[in-house]
Amino acid sequence: MLVKDVMRVPITCRADISIRDAAKIMLKHGIGSVIVVDAHYNIVGILTERDLMRFLAYKNDDPSLTHVREVMSKNVIVISENATLDDAASIMIKHNIKKLPVVDEDGKLVGIVTTTDLVLAGYKIDEEMRNLISPRPEEIFERSFDRL
Description:
The chain is α/β, with parallel strands linked by helices. The chain contains 5 helices and 6 strands.
């Protein structure tokens, strides 16, 4: 299965908004990160719950006066939409990250894949395999007549 099969639509923000506003965006959408983009939709960073916790724990600055650019992670690791889910899992494990922006062949942001997406995809694959292995009710019924 490929990343593009499970990726979600990315929620983005600009680097010049306050981290309070970014946190509100995250809460509104029920997500743990926003991808920070410039005017041309190029990725310039990612703001995660971890970044927000670090800010709250170590800074005494006002979140409504602190810009996303001051807190975001700048070295964003991305993955191609045509990569496999195994590739995505390997990257997440290697870099200890839970969110992975997805880019197209031109390097433009097209989605995001998270550890939750990988778990759900694994469950779907497991379910599909179980369905392939387990006989369907009609097969069991037909087999019972074979014995007569």
